[in-house]
């Protein structure tokens, strides 16, 4: 019987000895991670299915995280001439760029360990509550951005509990805007003093009768600024048929269908206000000779809070107070009037320091985020007026788009307040912010 050869025994390999680390300490050997089959209950908690949004508008708004996202969406929803009418400014657009650059220079100085577990961004404007220190600013041609125009914006503002300001050049009438949003909605009326003083007083009386609580007179528009994009686009209302507009019809059929199948687009507040040649029409209706002396006429017709919108110097803010104004809006008209005008955020602290005990000081121009609002309030503004942001939302998604803008601004403001360590709006003060050189 043959004995099979023996297989030599495999020598045992000793476990690797712990190696000294570079620090000189002994490091234990690496252990393998034990694996197992997970239970379904464990897997299920990791799977989060996003709800399916049935419409393109809902998906578009859901994707938007910032106002800039809505601006990008708006660009694809309306004709180019309409988008650039909203987005553009006067002449070389230096003021538009400078207003944004000023907010880019903001540097916050947070208070850590401030105990701000809950923040309240609500405030009071001219004795009336507002859920945010934000007002939807008066903007012309709202129904170009979306066929519901001012109605959609006013409803969104009422739902959010913030004021909506209707312009004299609105495409929905004073009374029709007053009919939406409910009796508790906060509505302001923005007035241009016109050559026809009788018509001016009539508009004031209509606003008062319809329940508007604040009258804001825009004082920086004796004539219309030159908006070169509008000139180059041949902007008109309604749009003229050219090869470009015909192409726009093909690319934006929904916008055109809404425009053609809803009420005629006119200046709804001014009798016979056909806006076809809007710059010429405005220059023919507005009075470039209006002066501070005309405020006496306004005061006779209006006994509520009176605000002058378009103040750009401390001297004019002082004159506004001397002539009985209750508030001013430090404003560059969004960069749409005088190019190279002062930057409101830079002028704001001077006006507040000089006249903050006599006037409520508000700010507009360049505001795009809730952090911008926090910075302006910290520098002394009672609130910010926003125009382009809500128009971007209107173009991107109608009333739901305006809801989204207000939601974004509110969320950003509350987060900024948390991170600054403040729990109330009145705790935002100049010590928390500075403008970098």
TrEMBL record:
UniProt feature, compositional bias: Pro residues? 1-19
What's the cofactor? FMN
Transmembrane ranges, per UniProt, are none
Q: Where does glyoxylate bind?
A: 192, 227, 333, 336
Q: Where is this region: Disordered?
A: 1-35
Which parts of the sequence belong to the FMN hydroxy acid dehydrogenase domain?
Answer: 59-437
Question: Which residues of the sequence carry a binding annotation for FMN?
Answer: 138-140, 190, 218, 309, 331, 364-368, 387-388
Q: Which InterPro entries match?
A: Aldolase_TIM (IPR013785), Alpha-hydoxy_acid_DH_FMN (IPR012133), FMN-dep_DH (IPR000262), FMN_HAD (IPR037396)
**Residues annotated as the enzyme's active site:** 333
Name a GO molecular-function annotation: FMN binding
Q: Does the keyword rRNA processing apply?
A: no
**Origin superkingdom:** Bacteria
Q: Which UniProt keywords apply?
A: Flavoprotein, FMN, Oxidoreductase
Q: Give the protein family.
A: Belongs to the FMN-dependent alpha-hydroxy acid dehydrogenase family.
Name the chain's protein: L-lactate dehydrogenase (Cytochrome)
């Amino acid at each position: 019987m043959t004995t099979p050869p023996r297989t030599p025994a495999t020598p045992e390999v000793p476990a690797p000895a712990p190696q000294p680390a570079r620090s000189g300490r002994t490091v234990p050997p690496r252990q393998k991670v034990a694996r197992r089959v997970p239970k379904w209950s464990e897997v299920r908690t990791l799977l989060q299915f996003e709800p399916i949004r049935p419409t393109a508008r809902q998906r578009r708004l859901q994707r938007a995280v910032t106002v800039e996202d809505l601006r990008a969406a708006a660009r694809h929803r309306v004709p180019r001439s309409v988008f650039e009418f909203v987005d553009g400014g006067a002449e070389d657009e230096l003021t538009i760029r400078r207003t944004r650059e000023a907010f880019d220079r903001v540097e916050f100085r947070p208070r850590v360990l401030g105990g701000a577990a809950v923040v309240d961004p609500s405030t009071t404007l001219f004795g009336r509550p507002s859920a945010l220190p934000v007002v939807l600013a008066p903007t012309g041609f709202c129904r170009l951005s979306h066929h519901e125009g001012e109605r959609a914006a006013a409803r969104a503002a009422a739902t959010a509990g913030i004021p909506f300001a209707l312009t004299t050049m609105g495409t929905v009438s004073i009374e029709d805007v007053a009919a939406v949003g409910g009796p508790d909605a906060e509505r302001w009326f923005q007035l241009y003093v016109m050559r026809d003083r009788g018509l001016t007083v009539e508009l004031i009386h209509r606003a008062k009768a319809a329940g508007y609580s604040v009258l804001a007179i825009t004082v920086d528009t004796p004539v219309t600024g030159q908006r070169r994009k509008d000139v180059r686009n041949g902007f008109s209302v309604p749009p003229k048929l050219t090869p470009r507009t015909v192409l726009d019809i093909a690319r934006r059929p929904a916008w055109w269908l809404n425009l053609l199948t809803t009420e005629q687009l006119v200046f709804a507040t001014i009798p016979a206000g056909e806006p076809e040649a809007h710059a010429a029409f405005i220059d023919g209706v507005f009075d470039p000779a209006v002066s501070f002396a005309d405020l006496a006429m306004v005061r006779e017709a209006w006994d509520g809070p009176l605000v002058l919108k378009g103040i750009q110097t401390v001297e004019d803010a002082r004159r506004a107070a001397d002539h009985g104004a209750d508030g001013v809006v430090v404003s560059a008209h969004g960069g749409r009037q005088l190019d190279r005008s002062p930057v409101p955020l830079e002028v704001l602290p001077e006006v507040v320091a000089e006249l903050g005990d006599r006037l409520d000081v508000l700010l507009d121009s360049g505001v795009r985020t809730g952090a911008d609002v926090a910075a302006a309030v910290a520098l002394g503004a009672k609130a910010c007026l926003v125009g382009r942001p809500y128009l971007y939302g209107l173009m991107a998604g109608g009333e739901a788009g305006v809801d989204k803008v207000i939601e974004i601004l509110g969320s950003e403001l509350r987060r900024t307040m948390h991170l600054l360590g403040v729990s109330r709006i009145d705790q935002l003060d100049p010590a928390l912010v500075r403008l970098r050189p």
